[in-house]
Amino acid sequence: MIFDLATLPFGDAYKLAVGSVVPRPIAFVSSRSAAGVDNLAPFSFFTVICANPLTLCFSTMRKGPNAVKKDTLANIEATREFVIHVVDEAFVEQMNLCAAELDPETSEFDFSGLTAVPADVVNASRVQESPIAFECTLNQVLEISDRPGGGSLIIGTVLRAHVRDDLYDNGRVRLDRWRPLGRLAGAGYCRVTDLFDLERP
Questions:
Q1: I want to staple 116 with a disulfide (CB 3.0 to 4.6 A). Which of 43, 70, 109, 200 is the partner?
Q2: Contact predicate 112/40, CB 8 Å
Q3: pLDDT in tens, 132-161
Q4: Structural domains counted in the chain
């Protein structure tokens, strides 16, 4: 099949993308509003940009027919700080609760039961249950589209990383000691359980 993206409805383009670009890591992002309310939300359009300085990025899509900005984007634009956490099986149910549409005055920490602890160097809470977290300042926001289905790329410079003690060994994160999850389409997730090595030429 061949799809012409000039005529394909954005909802169908979204389904095509999330069903094809798999598995995707999950950025579980905490931010704080200008009014001081903690926000927590998962995003599966997430990756590393570079290591010097360590720079991560994730993207948010506009909500609903009025293309409203998500609270995460609004908070980061206002404060220029946030924390990206990785997600494992130990708290996936609570993470999923944070995908609910809540009003901006309600904290997803309270709604999900996850534990908020102060970050070290940014003005946002950190998820205590997450085995790895990156405290970030905003590098830039690239707005691709403000239409329904549009979105923005949020680029953050990492100032501090938190890694659970048992996961870090001899300069490497031990994948065999934690259970990260990947995002698929719809309600689908996957586990990192079938591993193999392939040396580069």
A1: 109
A2: yes
A3: 999 999 999 999 999 999 999 999 999 999
A4: 1
